[in-house]
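Continuing from yesterday's entry. The apo prediction looked reasonable, so today I'm repeating it with flavin-adenine dinucleotide included to see how the binding region is handled. Same sequence as before; SMILES copied from the compound registry.
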Amino acid sequence: MTTNKVTDEQEAAPVKVLEDVQHTTCCIVGGGPAGAVLAYILARNGVDVTLLEKHGDFDRDFRGDTLHPAIMELMDQLGLADRLLHLYHTRLGSFNLNTDGGAVSIDLSHLLTKYPYITFMPQVEFLTFLTDEAKRYPCFHLIMDADVKELIEENGKIVGVRYQPPDGWHAVRAALTVGADGRFSKVRHLIGIELVKSAPPMDVLWFRLPRKPEDGEGVAGTIHDGAMFVMLDRDTEWQIAYAIPKGKYKQIQAAGLPAVRQKVAEALPYMADRMELIKDWKQLSLLAVESSMCRRWYAPGLLLIGDAAHVMSPVAGVGINYAVQDAVAAANLLTAPLQQGNLTVADLAAVQQQREWPVKVMQAAQGAVQERILKGALQAGKPFKLPLIIRLPFVRNIAARLIAFGVRRVRLKV
Ligand SMILES: Cc1cc2nc3c(=O)[nH]c(=O)nc-3n(C[C@H](O)[C@H](O)[C@H](O)COP(=O)(O)OP(=O)(O)OC[C@H]3O[C@@H](n4cnc5c(N)ncnc54)[C@H](O)[C@@H]3O)c2cc1C
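Holo prediction written out below.
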């Protein structure tokens, strides 16, 4: 295990004055879907848990707002689904991909589940709801503005973290530290676990445009002349993903904003009347798409879950689903040892063992879609034809199941 070494420079720095040291059983770094769900389930089972979130709120720019059927089933198991569905949301039972070479639809509405649709809800609402529900349990502690910067290591084991809100340093000591701090995980960096990466053939430019009622709702996908767009309904606006060939952002920038506006308007003619609202490159946010996984998800006293352990390609939008399923698997396997105070490294390894293969299988499926569909779709000037296989009903059914539940349905057992 490698942790952040104290350099000569750091040794010369003024000694940190620790404001306080808190003690908990499980310290979770990161209040995203993975961290919030794990914290909720542990607290519900009487495990003392401290959730540290770097930001002052849960609002995110350009994040996923999807709750797939697997997540709704979990909410149902937890007795939270009805209350959650009282919050503003939209539902999507099927998804159409329109291309110059034909259209294809993925239909979730026939799936055997109480929730045969994708629930669209701003992630901030979901996370606020979940953490508010967790606050009913006295053993749940949420600390916002808590930017975790160091791990505390003793005798080769992680025993907590140090974080820094604006007022100084604090420490949390715990039997287990969970890194649920997303794709740029500080915890993963500090422990020295590397991601094994593969590079999907695209990057994504995100931007927003106002949504009019006549546009329709839910999700729409379009492939047109070397460009792919996926539009996500966020009530009053569309969050639009513009997939571009990997590494071509500079070239697109050099061609200028008018060229971007024209490209969007050609592919999505009903957006043409709004394209002048895109006036500045700052309105476009570049997401370098990657697909990756840690070889090892754990170290003594520490576990990585969600994007911190594996970044999923955006194909099929399974990132949140997978992050939440990691959290459920971790809760199933670790609640008893945490309650009994006998957590071992083998318990942490079991979480990776259970979740690693569904991640690998999904990433392989996403890789196949990227190679067989997206690569061709992103070649300008070449007529694009959807591969025949995606038109086959049973293939579309498999795709619907993978989107809804992932490779392995994870049920809560605690
Ligand atoms: C632009 C974009 C669009 C996406 N769209 C979709 C979609 O439609 N559907 C889908 O399923 N997935 C989507 N994803 C992926 C999805 O957002 C992630 O897979 C999912 O959020 C991962 O959850 P997580 O809890 O592991 O990490 P995150 O959601 O990244 O949460 C990590 C949390 O840790 C906090 N944190 C980070 N560092 C620290 C620190 N040092 N100390 C304390 N806290 C820290 C962060 O503030 C954050 O709240 C999208 C991703 C992006 C970037």
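Comparison notes:
- The two ends are 31 Å apart (CA to CA).
- Confidence is low (pLDDT under 50) at residues 1-12.
Will overlay with the apo model tomorrow.
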